[in-house]
């Protein structure tokens, strides 16, 4: 049976993919950075919130990760956008719960802007 895991944590600047394009992941212009594929998706955001001490001078860097265990989904645009939609939705709920200014830069609905690979 397939299972989906969604995790959140803090990231360091060098955790961003930048110009590196891992196999099976495709870059999107969402948040600070986003990568999506049929088995994984990543969404990086920065949060300034009164609930996160010091974030007014150094925003908290939050990474959301979605992983499908044993996924047989094809690597297509609709599948990538579906995985990123799920991760965006959960990330938006987290940043709203944290009280991040401007929803940590996320739009209310995912905006899919594929970036060059």
Please tell me how large the radius of gyration is.
14 Å
The number of E-state strands comes to 5
Distance between the termini: 32 Å
What percent of residues are in strands?
Answer: 25-35%
Note the main sheet: 5 strands, antiparallel
Written as H for each helix and E for each strand, in order along the chain, the element string is EEEEEH
* Amount of helix: 10-25%
**Overall pLDDT confidence:** 92
> Number of helical segments?
1
Strand line-up of the largest beta sheet: 1-5-4-3-2
Could you characterize what this model shows?
- It is a single chain.
- The chain has one helix at 77-98; strands at 3-10, 26-28, 33-36, 40-47, 60-69.
- The chain contains one helix and five strands; from the N terminus they run βββββα.
- Helix content is 19%, strand content 28%.
- A hairpin with a 4-residue loop joins β2 (26-28) and β3.
- The model has no long low-confidence stretch (mean pLDDT 92).
- It has 117 residues and is α+β, with helices and mostly antiparallel strands.
- The radius of gyration is 14 Å and the shape is globular.
- Strands 1-5-4-3-2 form a five-stranded antiparallel sheet, covered by helices on one side.
């Amino acid at each position: 049976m397939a299972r989906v895991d969604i995790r959140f944590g803090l990231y360091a600047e060098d955790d961003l993919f930048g110009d590196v394009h891992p196999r099976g992941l495709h870059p999107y212009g969402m948040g600070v950075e986003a990568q999506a594929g049929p088995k994984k998706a990543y969404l990086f955001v920065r949060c300034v919130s009164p609930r996160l001490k010091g974030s007014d001078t150094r925003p908290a860097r939050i990474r959301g990760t979605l992983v499908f265990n044993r996924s047989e989904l094809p690597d297509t645009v609709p599948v990538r956008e579906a995985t990123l939609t799920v991760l965006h939705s959960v990330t938006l709920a987290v940043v709203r719960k944290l009280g991040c200014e401007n929803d940590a830069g996320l739009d209310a609905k995912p905006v899919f802007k594929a970036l060059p690979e």
